[in-house]
Amino acid sequence: MILDGKCPSGPIAGKWEKHRHEMKLVSPANKRKYRIIVVGTGLAGSSAAATLGELGYNVEAFCYQDSARRAHSIAAQGGINAARNYPNDGDSVYRLFHDTVKGGDFRSREANVYRLAEVSGNIIDQCVAQGVPFARDYAGYLDNRSFGGALVSRTFYARGQTGQQLLLGAYSALSRQARAGNVRLYPRTEMLDLVVIGGEAKGITVRDMVTGKIRCHAADAVCLCTGGYTNVFYLSTNAMGGNVTAAYRAYKRGAFFANPCYTQIHPTCIPATGDHQAKLTLMSESLRNDGRVWAPKIRGDRRPPQEIPEEERDYYLERKYPSFGNLAPRDISSRAAKEVCDDGHGVGPGGRGVYLDFAGAIERLGEDTIRQRYGNLFEMYERITDENAYKQPMRIYPAPHYAMGGLWVDYNLQSSIPGLFVLGEANFSDHGANRLGASALMQGLADGYFIIPCTIAHYLAQTRPDAVSAGHPEFVRSVEETETSIKRLLSINGRKTVNEFHRELGSIMWEHVGMTRSRESLENALRRIPELRAEFRENVRVPGREEDLNQELEKAGRVADFLEFAELLARDALYRDESCGSHFRVEHQTEDGEAVRDDANFCHVAAWQFRGADKEPELHTEPLAFENVRLAVRSYK
Amino acid sequence: MDILKNSVGRKLVMAVTGFGMIAFVIAHLLGNTTLYSGPDGINAYAGALHSCGVFLWTFRLTMAVMLSLHVFFGIQLTLENRAARPQAYTVTNYRASTFAGRNMIWTGLLIGVFLLYHLLQFTLQVTDPEIAAVRHPDALGRPDVFTMVALSFRKAAVAAVYVCAMAALGLHLGHSIQSSLQTLGLNSERTFPAITKGGIIAAILIALGFVSFPLVIYAGLLR
Amino acid sequence: MDLTLYVWRQSGPASAGRLEEYRAKDITSDMSFLEMLDVVNAELVRAGREPIAFDHDCREGICGMCSQVINGVPHGSREKTTVCQLHMRRFRDGDTIYIEPWRAKAFPVIKDLIVDRSSLDRIMQSGGYVSAHTGGVPDGNAILIPRDDAETAMDAAECIGCGACVAACPNGSAMLFAAAKVAHLAKLPQGRAEAARRVCVMTEAMLKEGFGNCGNHYECQAACPKGIKVKFIAQLNREYIKAHLKDGRDT
């Protein structure tokens, strides 16, 4: 099937305006009759729930954390992009749009990206109005910094905690609506199923993580804002609880999963130290503004970094990409780091690391300036590694960080199931094959504050409110199925812990479906994942009871989904026989190791439809047309 | 008054009444130093105070109101605080709070009990009628406060009670001076160390000042 | 290194809990405290016992989910550090470690080391926001904010809402938590308009949730993983006085 993204016609700059005008509205008096479920309370979820609640809808918001404020958006450090051109360095909506399309290696939908760039400025205003303490200069104006993949300074930031401050802003708006009774919050609640009635999403089945009770919530529309699936790699920069479950179970109920192979590996993370490692910590990409990345020229050089003379250091990003240098986009920087380490130049434990050196910046700007800019990051680094980055270079290594792929949505953010909307990282729409730094926060808030309120109204206006209740047979069936699968997990009583399976899955994914992929490695993964899944189903041990707070059970459910989803990811990576953005197939590269796209055959979105357990999914495509940005070889040289 | 239900509101009452009483305590201490100029000093001072009449009673009434508020809210807030932490930690490891701060209720109650005794002893003069100043005027016909105090403090037990009570007062003030300034919002990161230190020094000086009377008299240095 | 742990185990809110002894073996100094507990838990699962339940999520010190009192100190002895960022190099072979949940009436234990902190959410819901509507707001640069004010607001806004201040306070008071929000928003022109109302309703909500009263002990400041200063409590007090002096309003 050829999918239709339902992008409005006309010149790109007027599409959103025109579309907003054409969409139907719900009358103020009728809004409260509609119930909307929002799953996840990160930037997309909180902002959506708060805004929809404020508009007068009856909103129910769910999160697995103990408070909406703890969603993983909180961990984003660097900043948020907006096309404001405050520094007068030539930025514009068009340039942000252009940079994002190019950064995504021409695998995103033009109309979505343009809209994102258009509303980016409103996000900053909104956040300022909420009391987000963005960095300001001495005159009191908003300050900007530059970020990877851009030649202009368009990133707004609040120290190294931009994500935290934006989320707390959205959370405060959400709290206000909770107080007003427009939003009901369900923390410590995990969505385990989507209920589709008559082809439309009409509710969800959840597990109360405190009592273990399975219950249903009926609604007129469901918004999934459940983030990315990068924990499929086991070690990633995502929160421990980050999972694909909500999205995957929606997929199993008929929502198409688009481009799952686009997973971003972030170049500046703290290297792992051993098998006990539970997660990886990211160091903001903004560090690359002042830090220089290098590795020793001599293979296996074990000298301390200070003793390696200048001429024996390889500043490989500056050497390979003279114009962007240390600010080359994430996929390129990550791959370059892996290459030098694979080539034996890596430093630190196991030779999996390169240096990020601030000596030059400290000499030029003084330690105080560096402390002011990155103090909290240096502290965090010191806490984890026990090393002082003011005195010796940081060691960094790439780590799985973000999922550009996600549930397929049209221009209205509606999935292939009517009534199911997908926002933020959980959808696939805006970042193509690679996301630029400081764009995730922008997308989450754009979707939640400005896009969904318009597009969901268009859907609801054509729906009768309160059409089904939680007593509907489909809900009963969903509860039964969910309970059965939980009982099954608890009854296996095997010999391996959930974590052991997760770690094994992660190592398969990292080795074979990680930063570089080949037909051989992917076929290998596609053999091993089902084997591991089969073993899981027979040999996992999940202790404890069903009707209790049971963290092993929570993990088991998530890992069970990862074990299925991993195969979909690998299958998509195998299907996409080209290199683009973060998806690097070794078969498709230039002589000096740059990605080579195949626009003739793969200039499209690959969306997969579930066809039953252990059956191959069906592929649908959505062709991508580039009418405003010339489809070109992405170059950062 | 809703302000008296609010946590901060009641703490403000504690701070304001506390400061009122600190002012009284300082005035009391300064007045008492007349003891060192012998019977003529303190007896004249006591006589002068008594001649104030309405003033004295207004003052006494004010102090009584302040004290009652301070005690009432002190106990109420403490009970709430206890209720807010129903289960104690097995291991406690305080890093910023002080012994004085954590025991405000006990030093406060101790001071309260002492105050009763002190009023019975030197104001109502019912504990030791044989030396009651009102009944034993000095040569000039004034109540002989000097002799009453001097004879009282020569008893080891009485002197000891006063020393202990003043230790409690010192501890109480040691926390309360910086605490009330913080509650009144008259504190900032810059003034913080100075206020804390200054509060402790002031508390020690006040306590030492009061303790000096029983000690000096008991040691026989003032007859 | 090998360690002896005494961990608070409690099967539910209504049941009585107690400290149980565990051995943590072959712990390396590079592990984080929570990774050490992961190792202990893996052993428990293999032995067919129930693992220790504890809250955690981001494991990079920002989500505020982790909440353990280690040897009598919320988040452990390292300054400005959450449990998840505490590393085992802070401990020595043979050490005995006591691990307890946050203890406060307003934070009832749900299970083992997990407590219910929804009371903090309700304090925020009472007024910890600027009543800005989505859309229709002025340009972000329309109101200039002096850098120092923005920085001070940010100092207060860094609160991660973990509740360590409450856990550390001998009175179980949430004053530092409330003060951080009151001060953050009062420092910015956008938050100024509602400052008087905010300080009144937030302090009222605090009391209603069963938190104690601030005794100016400053244990909260010592425990705060983000280094939020008690000067913000002084500011809350000032805001409260101002709110009452200005229009004589009662809460």
Protein described:
The complex is a heterotrimer of chains A (637), B (223) and C (251). In chain A, 37% of the residues lie in helices and 16% in strands. Chain A is an alpha+beta fold and 637 residues long. In chain A, strands 6-2-1-10-18 form a five-stranded parallel β-sheet. In chain A, helix 3 (43-55) packs parallel to helix 6. The longest helix of chain A is centred in the C-terminal third of the chain and has 25 residues, at 551-575. Chain B is mostly helical and 223 residues long. Chain B has a single domain, classed as 3 helical TM bundles of succinate and fumarate reductases (Up-down Bundle). Helix content of chain B is 71%, strand content 0%. In chain C, 37% of the residues lie in helices and 11% in strands. In chain C, strand 3 (69-70) and strand 4 (73-74) form a beta hairpin. Chains B and C meet through helix 1, helix 3 and helix 7 of B and helix 7, helix 8 and helix 9 of C.
What's the short version?
With 637 residues, chain A is an alpha+beta fold.
Alpha-carbon Rg of chain C, integer: 20 Å
DSSP helix count of chain C? 9
Mean pLDDT over all positions of chain B: 94
Q: Please state the overall shape of chain B, judged from the principal axes of the Cα atoms.
A: elongated
What's the number of extended β-strand segments of chain B?
Answer: 0
CATH topology of chain B: 3 helical TM bundles of succinate and fumarate reductases
CATH class of the largest domain in chain C: Mainly Alpha
Going by CATH, the architecture of chain B would be Up-down Bundle
Largest sheet of chain B: none
Q: What order do the helices and strands come in, and which of them pair?
A:
The complex is a heterotrimer of chains A (637), B (223) and C (251).
Chain A: H1 15-22, H2 28-31, E1 35-39, H3 43-55, E2 58-62, E3 80-81, H4 93-103, H5 110-130, E4 145-146, E5 153-156, H6 162-180, E6 183-186, E7 189-197, E8 200-208, E9 214-218, E10 221-224, H7 245-252, E11 257-258, E12 263-269, E13 292-296, E14 313-314, H8 316-320, H9 330-342, E15 354-357, H10 359-365, H11 367-385, E16 394-403, E17 406-407, E18 420-422, H12 440-460, H13 473-492, E19 496-497, H14 498-512, H15 519-539, E20 540-541, H16 551-575, H17 599-602, E21 604-609, E22 618-623
Chain B: H1 7-32, H2 38-50, H3 54-84, H4 99-102, H5 104-123, H6 145-153, H7 156-183, H8 192-218
Helix pairs in contact in B: 1-3, 1-7, 1-8, 3-5, 5-7, 7-8
Chain C: E1 3-9, E2 18-24, H1 33-46, E3 69-70, E4 73-74, E5 96-100, E6 109-111, E7 114-115, H2 118-127, H3 147-157, H4 164-168, H5 175-186, H6 189-192, H7 195-208, H8 219-223, H9 231-247
Parallel strand pairs in C: 1-5
Antiparallel strand pairs in C: 1-2, 3-4, 3-5, 6-7
Helix pairs in contact in C: 2-7, 3-5, 5-7, 5-9, 7-9
